[in-house]
Design a protein that fits this description.
CATH architecture: Beta Complex
Strand content: 15-25%
GO molecular function, one term: histone methyltransferase activity
Radius of gyration: 20 Å
Distance between the termini: 16 Å
Subcellular location: Chromosome
Keywords: Chromosome, Metal-binding, Methyltransferase, S-adenosyl-L-methionine, Transferase, Zinc
Number of domains: 1
CATH class: Mainly Beta
Domain Pre-SET: 48-138
Helix content: 10-25%
Number of helices: 5
Shape: globular
Organism: Cylindrobasidium torrendii FP15055 ss-10
Bound molecules: zinc ion
CATH superfamily: SET domain
Largest sheet: 5 strands, mixed
Mean pLDDT: 84
Length: 322
């Protein structure tokens, strides 16, 4: 069954039709699965780690703390550079770091800002309740995979209390492919009108590109994306999230046990407070505008959007998985 892979508190509900549970034709995991010889496996050599004998949050000399702080400054600089929205700019500028823990995570496990996270790892001496290991611990609240009236299966938050903004929800797991392999699989998927591929091309990779190229990032020439994630054969409950034009989830790059900047976990965090019983959704293609993509002539890639949000654009990228 879907939930036997160490997954807690997930139930199914269908008040719409006779299907008892969604089709489960994939390998269930919360990890990234490297596929093929050209994709490096997660490596602990050279990975940043700490030797804290007291809790990391209490140790001013924790090496993971300084690492996260450095990355925060780098990544925020890039975010400011690419974020053209003035309101968002003002918000970024005002973000105070460090928190009282010294990490991007606050004491209650939420992030101060939705920027890439660098967690403590297998080589660190701290234990599993370290504040900088949030994604490595159980989620801590129940979810229901339920049948919606018009949008197939979806996922609902079924905790008893309000889930605060910037809370960890889960990892969008899948196979990691080279771009070549992804192109080949993409052609097959296009024929079946389904999209399972997710580019690992987060804006913060510009720093890594600059290091490799030895020059400033060039928007026209440089390509940050080296690997693509495929959630067709491998995945978890996150593949049932529906699209919404005004979603309550966002994706945040997350590093654990891996030093390769181009291979990161794509973690879902809440964008704002979420109330018990609310469906969890994210925007399948936030940067894409209708004109650019020519929706009308591209019906395999796009579908009518039925999210019901006030700002609904009327269409969406086809389901990423399922
Ligand atoms: Zn530490
Ligand atoms: Zn550490
Ligand atoms: Zn730690």
């Amino acid at each position: 069954m879907l939930v036997n892979a160490g997954e807690e508190d997930i139930s199914f509900e269908n008040n719409v039709d006779a299907e008892s549970a969604p089709p489960v034709e994939f390998y269930y995991t919360n990890e990234l699965v490297p596929s093929g010889a050209d994709v490096p496996s997660p490596s602990l050599s050279d990975v940043n780690c700490c030797d804290c004998l007291i809790p990391c949050k209490e140790n001013p000399h924790c090496a993971c703390k300084s690492h996260q702080k450095q990355k925060f400054e780098d990544d925020r600089a890039i975010q400011l550079l690419i974020d053209k929205d003035e309101g968002a700019q003002a918000q970024w500028k005002n973000t105070k770091y460090p928190t009282n823990t010294g990490f991007l995570y606050k004491e209650n496990g939420t992030l101060i800002e939705l920027l890439p996270v660098y967690e403590c790892n297998a080589l660190c001496r701290c234990n599993e309740d370290c504040v900088n290991r949030r994604s490595q611990r159980p989620r801590g609240f129940p979810l229901t995979i339920f049948k919606t009236a018009e949008r197939g299966w979806g996922v609902r938050y079924d905790g008893k209390t309000t889930l605060p903004g910037h809370s960890f929800i889960g990892i969008y797991a899948g196979e990691v492919l080279t771009e070549n392999e992804a192109d080949q699989r993409g052609r097959t998927y296009d024929r079946s009108n389904r999209t399972y591929l997710y580019n690992l091309d987060s804006a913060h990779l510009r720093t890594a590109c600059e290091k490799i190229n030895g020059r400033p990032f060039n928007e026209e020439e440089d390509e940050c994306c080296k690997y693509v994630m495929d959630a067709h054969h491998v995945g978890n409950f996150t593949r049932f999230f529906n699209h919404c034009c005004q979603p309550n989830l966002v994706v945040v790059p997350l590093y654990v046990d891996n030093v390769n900047p181009f291979i990161y976990k794509t973690a879902f965090f809440t964008w704002r407070d979420v109330q018990p019983g609310e469906e969890l959704t994210f925007n399948y293609g936030p940067g894409i505008t209708g004109n650019e993509e020519g929706i009308a002539g591209n019906t395999g890639k796009f579908a009518l959007c039925k999210c019901g949000a006030r700002s609904c654009k009327g269409w969406q990228l086809s389901r990423l998985a399922l």
